[in-house]
Amino acid sequence: MMRATDLVLTPTHLRFAGRNFPRSIGRGGITSDKREGDGATPRGIHRIVGMLYRPDRIARPAAWAVPIGPSDLWSDDPGHEDYNLMVRAPYPHNHERLRRADPLYDLVLVTDWNWPFAERGRGSAIFLHQWRKPRHPTAGCIALSRHDLRWIAERLTHASRLIVR
Length: 165
Prior knowledge:
The structure is a single chain. The strands form three sheets. Strands 1, 2, 3, 6, 7, 11, 12, 13 and 14 form a nine-stranded mixed sheet that branches. This protein has a single domain, classed as L,D-transpeptidase catalytic domain-like (Beta Barrel), CATH 2.40.440. A hairpin with a 2-residue loop joins strand 2 and strand 3. The radius of gyration is 15 Å and the shape is globular. The chain is built from one helix and 14 strands. The protein starts with 6 loop residues before the first strand and ends with a strand. One of its GO terms (molecular function) is carboxypeptidase activity. Belongs to the YkuD family. This is L,D-transpeptidase-like protein. Pathway: Cell wall biogenesis; peptidoglycan biosynthesis.
């Protein structure tokens, strides 16, 4: 059953709060069999479980948003127990920096894809974040314009879900 707070990924846009937003998805398209490194966006109903932001670049978008610090990372190492969890530097295993030089992760909505008890190799870090350029494919995440991402983040609730068909 759809809720008013749901984000719905359609073949052409992301629908939320009665509005349609242009979006990018993974270079591997949408899949029902997500694997680490396949570049695909996983089909399903995913809860929005977190909001991260760069306090040195943008104002806090919502009361529940958590600041990204210089040592914040995301483990994408399927061989490690911290796979698909936020970790801190120094971290010797495969990971992704959350505090990036580019603006892609200035604001990040975290989904519960393969989280918090990750099945190794099923894929990690399915985020909603800023796009590199309009409709440029991602590594599996959903990307939006900076303005649209901010607009959505300011209106999300803890009941919000991402529905990918």
